[in-house]
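ok here's the first one, seq then struct tokens
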Amino acid sequence: MESMRYFSDILYFYAARVAIDTPWKYGPEYTFHVQVNSTAIPEEGSYMSIRLNVASKLVCQPKGLRILSCHFRDSKADSYATESLDPGTPAVPVSQVSRQEAYEINQDQFEIRFTEQGLDSLVVNENIQPRELDMIRVIVGQLNVGVLGEYDQTVELMENFTQGECVTMFWVERNVIGHALYVNRGYVLETIFGLKDGQLVQIKKIRNLHMCTHKVPYFFGSAESIRQVSDVVSTVSSSESHIVITSTEFISGTTNVITTSKVSEGMVTTLYENISVRLESILPALDEPPEVKDPEPASMFIGRWLMESSMEDDLSLEV
């Protein structure tokens, strides 16, 4: 026998169908599969590219109505050279595959805080490295839907993008799935879009990177400080996101194209980034979420640290 148990949270879905004898004392635990793939292609005339692949699990528990308590686990990262210059296709390594521990996110607990407009801020350990904080920001930014229940429309809105608040064009469309996509996962996502089996919502977002406040040049894993003069100059030329939501699926991904140049060497490289987050399971949590050790608030924006300094940052970085 089954019972519908509802869990309110801010991920735009809130229901799980579970057997009545399943222990849900501590609420649900959401597990997301995270994938980051980056392809670096040097300037014209190159016949090689460098691939970086990062895989991880993002595990979150609701903590009240507007907070998710999360951590990463099973993070793995590697890189290799390949003769493929197409970032959208699988590639065969022509060099040794090297582990990249610097991209393997640690398992420290952190919190994601939401408002009605979407992602608002983070709470992290005060000793977190700025580089790692920025990687977390980029990944959890995929949870930001950005529209509240509207569909079959095109609308221009301001979005809290990790690299600033950007004017973003949203395309929201509801479709009927042409084939049986439903898989019995033991839960049903009751979204703000009111989806039924066989229906999906697709959301496409294209950011106007010329209309952002405090825009920051950034690529995944960059260790360059925005407060220091750097030999590396980065420009994000395009950023586009796609979200698919069904009664059992939540898939969100972003594709960024970044141009980087090393001033001292005159070398130009184009980076193609694909960041994706996919809901993998909703299971009963085994315990209350642990508290963040030595907590400090941090904004969602790349390069920001303490919340009290954000106003100063905004004034110095606004474009």
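and now the second one, same deal
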Amino acid sequence: MAKKVCFFLQRRFAYLGHALAYNLLKNGSAKEICAYVTLRSSYDFIKNQKDLHYTGLLLDEDIYKDALKKGSVNFEYLNKLEATYGLPNLWPYLYLDRVLMNGQLIREYPYNRPTASFDDMLRIIEHSAKTIEKFLDDEKPDAIVFSVIGSLAPLLLYQMAKKKGIQTICIDLTRIKNGVGLSEDFKTFSWVDSIYEKLQAGTLKSQYLENAEKFIEEFRKSPEPYLKELKPEFNNQVGRAANISFLKPKQLIRTIFWHIRQLYLDLKQKENDYTDIKIWWIVFDKFMRKSRGLFGYHNFWEKIPKKENFAYYPLHYETETATLLYAPLYVNQIELIKQTARALPVGMYLYVKEHPRMIGYRKRNFYRDIKKIPNVRLIQPTYYGPTLVKEAKIIVTITSTAGWEGVMLGKPVITFGDIYYNKLPNVSRCRSFEDLALLIKNKLANTGHDEKSLIHYVAALMEESVNIDYVNLWAFPDEKALLADPAMIELAKLLHLKMNI
């Protein structure tokens, strides 16, 4: 039966979400579409397109503006909201929002300053909750589709939908080549877990078992990141010269043209929204980042000694949902590294490697604090991550891809957050630093790896996903071409199946 579907259209996903909505209507899965849109430019696109009709639209930036016009905070309402939707209180909604709490996205890391006062934050969450609840009550969707839950609004929308019995469907990468899967729970792949458990129990057979074995074998022979941007050759900001490469004549002309165009668009803009990224801050933050890169970090990096026992901790990209949503109590990575280092057996080092996309963003003090820890080595960022995973005795991570690579290679893995591969027997989730030393000791003594379980899980991931170039489609959307893109048609088919279970 055709459903009414609501889409949370976050930033560039608005174009992909619109294409999915179009194909759901076309294949008969949906009868009506509504949407919550984050950016004004996306909202204008949705309003002006002629491909389909949206029965209702909300714009996040208007909700924010209206919230700041409100009078005193209604604490009676907030107390009721907290009692109904608290996690267990309302702070997780606010701390997830990097614009509100950190001023990031509109400014580059390491900028870290709230963009709203405490009272304004309360006004924003109060007005957002009232508006979203009314929207759901008016529109009455059967399902809501999320690309990512990365701020206050989508988390409210998700939790309210759960309470009201509305199906939630989250899109995520499986980290198996170009695999994209769906889940009713943002913390895991719910349908994958169901198949995995049946395979483990012997009540189901999968046609993907052979493919899973082949993929695991190929990965072990030649481990590669699932995204090409995570390879060392794409990490091009390590050297000093790379930070002034924009001064080459052709590149300089393009750079100047882009910034002049952006300045013109900023000055021409009629509405000033809280998520706007202003050109003057882009220039300032880029100047600071290039300055840090020119000064260099080479005195912090170490080469890897031969035949040394080590645990591996990959630094996370900041700020992102991998920490803010999946591990909100473990966002302080320096403290996490300190606690991990002191939890290791005597004689074992902790190797720490920077995330490829964070070169130049962190201040030197960040690395200096890491270097103060006696049994920690800060590894050259260009060193191949999967090789470190392969050589490590144990992987300690928040929720990173390195943990999944460790699982694939049969390594013991400790995580600090909600991540789908926590289901595997060689993975232990740490919920307190007090437990960490014993967890590491036990995992080193018995990894828990079970090859059959791994094959079953990879087969389940393959069965419950489609192979599409989702990342590039998101980064470089072509609004019209997306409607007939085979990838969007395939993903819409998968959505159709899950909405009709």
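notes on #2: The chain has three domains: 3-189+464-499, 241-295, 299-455. Residues 288 and 361 are 9 Å apart (CA to CA).
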